[in-house]
Amino acid sequence: MDPVAPPGLVGFGRWAVPLLSEQLRLPRGGARLRALAALADELHRPLRATEALNAGFLQQLKVLLEDEDPLVRAKVCEILHMLAAHASGRHALLAASFLPPLSELLEDPPCRRTVYLLLSRLSLHSSGGASLLTLLPKLMKRLPEEEEEELQVLLLSLLTCCFQVDPQAALRSDAVSLLAPKLSDGALRVRKAAAAAMMALSVPMAGKLQVCEVLPAVAALLQEDDEDAQLNASGVIMFTAVTTAGKLRCLHLDVLPVLLKLVCERHDEEQIRRRRKPLVIYALRALTMLAETPEGRRLLQEQLPLLRRRSEEEEDQDIQQVLQTAVQVVTFSP
């Protein structure tokens, strides 16, 4: 039987949630499914979501995450995802220690996609990113196993959140080697999500040195006709080019002309200029790092008129400041 709302419950107003709570205790799976479906309908109203959090529902839902019926488990995950749309819901789920049972469902195909989406919402909580670190080993384990494009992107987004909180923990888990295949295999969505995760790993010095090994794949991504791909690749290059090894590798890969082109592209629409601002700043900072080498400085000195003109025409003060720094480094005489 299809899961439909139990007759007579939805019209009970503020009594609907307590009555549905009683329905969830029934031993029959069909009755629980109908109650869960009705609850999902009720939770579209913010007031009902608050009532559910205050009605002791969470412990019932936690028990149902282990139900033998996969349809029940999947519906509970959907309801938790709805609750996590609200700040109070995210706080309540984290406080009620839902992460351990949810992590068990990462191996449950009917639930996995919703669990990824739910964890993404929980990461928005002030302590959500730090809390997700407890799941890092299981998330990393899923990385080589996940095949569906959408699920790979969701997983990489979660890993990026973890890496931003504690890149060192990820580096100790061999994250760079596990991520590397994602930079060159599969759809563009997957590759640019992998580059975002790699950028987070390249913040600490140990990460910069490890990420140098995957710069060829990053350089290839830099040339994609996609702003997010270019942004993430520029960010990786910006961080890794702090090191001598990174500078030399980037020059060998001939990324300097590509970065310069990204910096000097002009757009008349204000909306496009605002959207591209982070990309331009990342590319400029990467160029500045490369200008610290004799070869990079020589190549950029040939483009000084272009950089100076770009600086004179730039209206955005942040970009203009980074441009002026780049020009100073290029014209520096040791």
UniProtKB/TrEMBL annotation:
<dbReference type="InterPro" id="IPR042856">
    <property type="entry name" value="RSP14"/>
</dbReference>
<protein>
    <recommendedName>
        <fullName>Condensin complex subunit 1 C-terminal domain-containing protein</fullName>
    </recommendedName>
</protein>
<dbReference type="InterPro" id="IPR016024">
    <property type="entry name" value="ARM-type_fold"/>
</dbReference>
<dbReference type="InterPro" id="IPR011989">
    <property type="entry name" value="ARM-like"/>
</dbReference>
